[in-house]
């Protein structure tokens, strides 16, 4: 019962919190927050409770390849959003994610190598994002907006954890970073504010993937030695890593160096 409540409450609350923060500080901030392991973290923690540390270590290592699929999702969603509605855009992006996950499910490498691949994928994806056009402004949001995001997130988390738990650590890890929160946030932004705000949100997601990769690496390496304590430790280091990434981005822009991220 406790695990079910964790699935139904933690990730949706984090998505709602990210949405509220994005409304105050901008779409890119919302993207950075949902690009953090706010869904994959709870999924891996539930996996630890259900299947133990060894299974979780394998899943966390595989999650690094799942981040490659998440980077592909961001690029595909941003590119398709300019020509299609939110439903078609989400469907096409999910297909792209599953194709990449299926291809990477056959790859076995050291965890450190997978970490390097994930970081490289985030950097390459950032360079492939479309330019941001004029903002359409903030649309009037319906009263059910935040509850709708929470319910959508809870249903997707239930679907992913139910499916992945029966498929072993490799697919559990690949599906843990499945764009649950990202799909919900990007879909709502696309429907309410248009493609430019969606691109900004997804650019923030890609920025969050660098520290997301740090989280997966630390859990994969330390969960068998530290047990559940590895999760708060990894989360704390992830927050520090994200602050460093954001500061580096500001320095990068301040130097006038070309690049979208």
UniProtKB/TrEMBL annotation:
The chain crosses the membrane at residues 31-50, 62-82, 102-125, 146-165, 171-189, 201-223, 229-246. It comes from the Bacteria. Keywords: Membrane, Transmembrane, Transmembrane helix. This is Uncharacterized protein.
């Amino acid at each position: 019962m406790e695990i079910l409540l964790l699935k139904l409450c933690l990730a949706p609350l984090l998505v709602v919190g990210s949405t509220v923060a994005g409304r105050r500080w901008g779409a890119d901030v919302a993207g950075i927050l949902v690009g953090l392991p706010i869904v994959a973290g709870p999924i891996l923690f539930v996996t630890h409770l259900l299947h133990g540390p060894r299974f979780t270590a394998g899943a966390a290592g595989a999650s690094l390849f799942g981040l490659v699929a998440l980077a592909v999702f961001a690029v595909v969603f941003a590119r398709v959003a300019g020509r299609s509605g939110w439903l078609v855009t989400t469907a096409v992006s999910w297909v792209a994610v599953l194709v990449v996950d299926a291809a990477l499910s056959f790859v076995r490498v050291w965890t450190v190598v997978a970490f390097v691949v994930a970081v490289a994928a985030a950097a390459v994806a950032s360079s492939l994002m479309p330019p941001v056009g004029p903002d359409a402004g903030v649309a009037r949001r319906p009263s059910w907006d935040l509850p709708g995001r929470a319910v959508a997130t809870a249903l997707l988390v239930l679907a992913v954890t139910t499916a992945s738990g029966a498929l072993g650590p490799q697919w559990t890890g690949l599906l843990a970073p499945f764009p649950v929160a990202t799909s919900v946030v990007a879909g709502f932004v696309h429907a309410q504010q248009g493609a430019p705000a969606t691109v900004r949100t997804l650019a923030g997601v890609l920025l969050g993937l660098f520290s997301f990769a740090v989280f997966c690496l630390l859990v994969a390496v330390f969960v068998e030695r530290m047990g559940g304590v590895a999760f708060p430790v990894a989360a704390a280091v992830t927050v520090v890593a994200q602050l460093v990434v954001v500061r580096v981005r500001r320095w990068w822009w301040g130097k006038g160096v070309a690049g979208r991220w």
